[in-house]
Automatic annotation (TrEMBL):
<dbReference type="InterPro" id="IPR003750">
    <property type="entry name" value="Put_MeTrfase-C9orf114-like"/>
</dbReference>
<dbReference type="InterPro" id="IPR029026">
    <property type="entry name" value="tRNA_m1G_MTases_N"/>
</dbReference>
<protein>
    <recommendedName>
        <fullName>RNA methyltransferase</fullName>
    </recommendedName>
</protein>
<comment type="similarity">
    <text>Belongs to the class IV-like SAM-binding methyltransferase superfamily.</text>
</comment>
<dbReference type="Pfam" id="PF02598">
    <property type="entry name" value="Methyltrn_RNA_3"/>
</dbReference>
<dbReference type="InterPro" id="IPR012340">
    <property type="entry name" value="NA-bd_OB-fold"/>
</dbReference>
<feature type="region of interest" description="Disordered">
    <location>
        <begin position="1"/>
        <end position="42"/>
    </location>
</feature>
<dbReference type="InterPro" id="IPR029028">
    <property type="entry name" value="Alpha/beta_knot_MTases"/>
</dbReference>
Length: 353
């Protein structure tokens, strides 16, 4: 986004929260602290997943190069659409800081919201089912054009009349305070009860069972991965911030880390998609660069300085040889690459079944 345009935004102090739980969660943290201690831990470790995952990483700087807020929003929307169309599990948005720090977590003033913070906010907003957005996302200037974007229409973006084995919901209130149950808005005509005490404002995945009457029978809260693992449903992506490319690789949220790293560049090897043999992986990461490519990201990163991209990534690929334009933009490369990788990834996933 051009700086001139960003300065027009009104200030609305707010902490950017990187979980999918919404930023007002942070404001309520203190208040709920004592009660939290009394509540039993209900959430399964969301990142302890047994099925293979695919993550993408891209720099937030691509937003800084756009000419207006509308164009920046549209670009963020395209990234969200690409991630959803290709069933991506995790989107990592990184900065080009030379040393690792998590400065963006303190990015309290949206007047100066960086391209990275803006992109993270919009990616999270779009991934959240429409009926939960009001509860999880306070009004924010960066969100003022999101209404123009085409919806993701992901399987967890269910309409009021649709029934599915799982639904995303937001916790409302303990019910009653003495009992260990909580009311949850799952976007149906009636709220449901879950059999856990959870503070209000948390996003949860609820197993809906088979009883469509929505009586007071308590429902189970499950891991966000469960719909994928049990029902093979695509259930959206998580969004993560990384201060630089080395942190993208090192701060992997999954047990054991990423075990195969793909870098993309016009300077990479040329291999036909049908001939690309990926090894069996648990957690695959595909990285994209910004205006000056991944080479610059590596060069600017103190932890990787002087390294060749071929040392950093398991493989470094040119997915669009003989390009007619001098440059393929990151958002274009995203669509081209994810289509290119679809078959090789499927071959690995099908062979490990
Ligand atoms: C504007 S380009 C950067 C140009 C740079 N010379 C490069 O390294 O490809 C932005 C990003 O799009 C992706 N990209 C562009 N052309 C590509 C190609 N032919 N093959 C694979 N990825 C490409 C890369 O991730 C690159 O970092």
């Amino acid at each position: 986004m051009a700086k001139k345009k960003r300065d027009e935004v009104e200030a609305e102090p707010q902490v950017l929260n990187h979980g999918n739980g919404g930023s007002h969660e942070t404001k309520k943290k203190k208040k709920n602290k004592t009660r939290d201690k009394e509540q039993k831990k209900v959430f399964v470790d969301d990142d302890d997943i047994s099925r293979p995952t695919v993550s993408i990483a891209l720099p937030g700087s691509i937003i800084d190069n756009t000419q207006s807020f509308e164009l920046a929003t549209r670009l963020a929307g395209q990234i969200a659409r690409a991630a959803t169309i290709f069933r991506i599990d995790e989107v990592v948005v990184f900065d080009n800081q030379s040393e690792s720090s998590n400065v963006i977590a303190e990015d309290a003033c949206d007047e100066n919201e960086s391209g990275t913070a803006f992109l993270i906010r919009i990616l999270k907003y779009l991934e959240t089912p429409q009926y939960l957005r009001k509860a999880l996302f306070p009004k924010h200037n960066s969100l003022r054009f999101v209404g123009l974007l085409p919806p993701l229409d992901a399987p967890h973006h269910l309409r009021k009349h649709e029934w599915a084995p799982y639904r995303e919901g937001v916790t409302l209130a303990l019910q009653p305070p003495t009992s260990a149950t909580t009311l949850v808005d799952v976007g149906l005509s009636k709220n449901v009860v879950i059999d856990e005490a959870v503070e209000p404002g948390r996003r949860v995945t609820v197993a809906m069972g088979t009883n469509r009457q929505l009586d007071d029978e308590a429902h189970e809260v499950v891991s966000w991965w469960k719909p994928r693992e049990e029902a093979g449903m695509y259930w959206g992506y998580k969004v993560r911030y990384a201060p630089n490319i080395s942190s993208v690789l090192k701060q992997c949220p999954y047990k054991g880390g990423y075990d195969y790293l793909i870098g993309t560049s016009e300077h990479g090897h040329i291999v036909k998609s049908s001939e690309l043999e990926l090894p069996s992986f648990r957690h695959l990461l595909i990285a994209f660069g910004g205006l000056a490519g991944l080479e610059e990201c590596i060069e600017e990163d103190k932890n990787l300085k002087g390294k060749d991209p071929r040392e950093v990534f398991s493989t470094y690929l040119n997915i669009c040889p003989h390009q007619g334009s001098r440059t393929i933009r990151t958002e274009e490369a995203l669509f081209i690459s994810l289509q290119y990788f679809q078959e090789p990834i499927d071959r690995v996933l099908n062979s490990s079944k």
